[in-house]
């Protein structure tokens, strides 16, 4: 038996759940005190188990068909925020246009989690392992707040505006044969583990084997994912000599702010990051560059 066009479901011992069918309805419902958006529910469940206050009523996005669509244009692909990670992985369009994103999503959770977890939820969590890959792809987020607006994901992470994420816009690569990419998730175990460091990168080489374009990002643990702009500038436009790589390795080890965990100090994480980035850049000299999906300590 289907739900009516709009319903609020009451469950004993659980918060009431509103189930709007449009973005506009969802936004209006979210303005009621104590409301929290819920998509696949994996993040909400985890945070509640960790003792966080997730509000006293949920606004489910499950009935909003618009948030599940994946669309391709001449210049970009658009992935609805409610598209599950599994749906993204099974999409021929995503696989063809953004193999780096596919590599990142395949490293997140177990298959059962990917069947429920959504791309939008992984982003809104603020520390999801898809974010470093999306940052180097220079993704934009489309938001609803009494109307639609688009902003770079990098800005959204800094500002966290009060708005509903509706879709993710990722520009197409003009020529994938000229690009190399990196995605590595370093954890304490090989599978189904929270990452200590997640690093992503995209590089384009010039004809003289110098780096023409480079985008690097890091996340993992409790740190907010961010671009590594200073490291990028140290490498762009310079011959890839052993001296340059040694200089960059020491720079990464000694500078930048990573967030240590009970399992790894900040100093150790900087060393791991330095190893991964320099290994990636060194591989460019031999025409390599696609990283692994996961690596264990």
TrEMBL record:
The entry's keywords: FAD, Flavoprotein, Oxidoreductase
Domain FAD-binding PCMH-type: from-to ranges: 1-175
Q: Which InterPro entries match?
A: CO_DH_flav_C (IPR005107), CO_DH_flav_C_dom_sf (IPR036683), Diverse_Substr_Oxidored (IPR051312), FAD-bd_PCMH (IPR016166), FAD-bd_PCMH-like_sf (IPR036318), FAD-bd_PCMH_sub2 (IPR016169), Mopterin_DH_FAD-bd (IPR002346), Xanthine_dehydrogenase_csu (IPR017612)
Annotated signal sequence range: none
Against SUPFAM superfamilies, the record matches this protein to:
CO dehydrogenase flavoprotein C-terminal domain-like, FAD-binding/transporter-associated domain-like
Q: Is Oxidoreductase among this UniProt entry's keywords? A: yes
Gene Ontology terms for molecular function: FAD binding; xanthine dehydrogenase activity
Q: Does the keyword Oxidoreductase apply?
A: yes
Q: What Pfam families does the record tag this protein with? A: CO_deh_flav_C, FAD_binding_5
Q: Which domain of life is it from?
A: Bacteria
Write down the EC number: 1.17.1.4
Query: Matching NCBIfam families, A to Z?
Result: pucC
- Put simply, this protein is called Xanthine dehydrogenase subunit C
Can you name the source organism?
Answer: Shouchella clausii (strain KSM-K16)
Q: Which gene encodes it?
A: pucC
